[in-house]
Protein: L,D-TPase catalytic domain-containing protein
Organism: Flavobacterium oncorhynchi
Amino acid sequence: MKKLYYTANLSFFLMLVLLGACKKNDKANLTKNTKPKKTIEYKKPKSSVSFQIEKTKGWLKINEADSSKLDIVYALNRTDKANFKKLDSVVIPSDFSGDLVYYMPFPLHVSALKEVSKIIIFSYPAQIFAAYKNGELVYTGPTNMGRKKDPTPTGLFFTNWKAEKTTSTFNDEWDLKWNFNIENKLGVGFHEYELPGYPASHSCLRLLEKDAKYLYKFADEWILKDKENVKVKGTPVIVFGNYNFDGPKPWLQLSSNPKALNIPESEIENEVKPFIPQILENQKLREAEQNTSL
């Protein structure tokens, strides 16, 4: 009986030890899982940035070999390498020591997007896009959107199908690389294509090659229930604002006011607020689908 008594006590003691270890691990895992996500640390310019208008050819003679400067200048002038050389005058910053985000107008943080895992936002008036993860800016770059005759539709969209190379619905001679469709019926999507430095597309959102490749991997495709029905939509995309086609290029204002194009966090919040319930509902469906797959 004594042996049985000691054995029972020993088993009970071991059980308490195991329960204590489990609780300790659970607490540690909870602390680990609830730890705030680290925001991206971008390098700020060493000095306050101002802008000036310079002759393109003269500036290129001195800086053509500096790729880090060129990346910033292409983005500032909403253009690419080939079309940059065609411009008579361009906007140039006084200091190139910072990361690109500090020369672009989108805010680094948007509290209203904290619960949104991924979203892409295009500003029509600024001709710039930004990608956010849980309210933190992770990528930004220039775009050339729809021309006056064929404006890009605004509002909330979701990425659907994608293709590394496809043919334009406007002209079958146009090859669209790294294309991600956002409006299937109208054939609107973002993709790599030349950036002349102003809205020139047939309603699509043109991107530099590196930016198109990034968004191609960043965004999610839709999940189809069958050939006719969508089960889960892709990544949310918001296009907002209006471009003044009859005025000068907006970024030329930077030479007189460095903050002329800045998009405050409050403006982004106003634009996304009406769509948050729909975005979160689709996000919930995607998470459930992924859990089911696993």
